[in-house]
Amino acid sequence: MAAEDLPIVLYHYVHSPYARRIVWYLNLRKIPYSQCLQPPIMPRPDVAQLGVAYRRIPLLAIGRDVYLDTRLILQKLEALYPASAAHPSLSAATAEGRALHGGLLSAWTNDAGGLFWNAVSLIPAGMPGTNDPAFLADRAEMMGLPRDGPSPISAEARAGRRPDALCEIAEAMALLESTLLDGGEKSWLLGTERPTLVDIEAVFVFAWLAAMPGALPKDTMGPAAFPRFYGWMARFIKTVEAAEKENGEAAMVKGDEAARMVLGSAFAEPEGSMDASHPVVVAEGLQKGDRVKMWPTDSGSGHKESGKLVSMSLKEIVVEAQAKEGLSVRIHAPRHGYKVKKDVDTSSNL
Ligand SMILES: N[C@@H](CCC(=O)N[C@@H](CS)C(=O)NCC(=O)O)C(=O)O
User: Fold this and answer.
1) CB atoms within 10 A of CB 14
2) What pLDDT, on the 0 to 100 scale, is given for residue 349?
3) Can you give the pLDDT at residue 227?
């Protein structure tokens, strides 16, 4: 069965800037999907019943394959849903554009110390929900810290980092203003007629901040300071809102229904194989079928997938894990930012 015929389920919550990347993408390409809304803090039993330990948002299931991390999710959607008149591609047509969205921009925005992490420090003190002790304890756990210790994202801690974070974000706005948005009338960063993945990669952190009153100082970092940048961001928001309206809201499914959809499906991809020359495969002596643990290294590292290693390449790690009722799912993570190790605990599933 072609991937296009399988159900897509997005597990997310609406305020997640990472989830917005996927919602924008799906709407711009008019790819139908269902959404299973999740609480903003753990536990997430809807995800657990798939046999998935990952604690971050979003996750995307295509049939019985579950994809972690928006960087891999976007690549997979591009590969599994080839461009057609009904679903136009968002890939860049040029090598420079593909280099930007194929890794350079996503490292700039996502990796430790990148734009997303600085943006977290700019969340205004009074932002609803962010001072809730349960939220702070949850996010401390996500960062591998004691739940009851001083929070690295309390309003006070954020205020301490604010000046440096403002510099990082201002520098990033100035870079776009003076390079990709410089010169001539340009709607999108690559000068294309429609937005591309480059726009999605570059805009998501800024769009999140711009929607939080008080996050950015208007005088020094507003439209007067960066007119082309703000014009581009406003165009992008307008375009994705129009696409969302045109497609209608994605069907909402509860956790049990979502699990039935996922577990009752075929796999979206063939099983894949092990790249025998992969440096990690060689160093760890990994083989297909090994029982392994797999986890992200930047945050949420305490939540480790546990299952059977299915395939590994320079781009991706795939582990088969036990879901409910004796069924399994294949969990895909990008190699960048993830670790896989042989599991010495033989009581783990599969
Ligand atoms: N690199 C990941 C980052 C995802 C991420 O950090 N998501 C945030 C929400 S925006 C998260 O999961 N926060 C903790 C949580 O919701 O449990 C990706 O691209 O998907």
Assistant:
1) 11
2) 58
3) 96
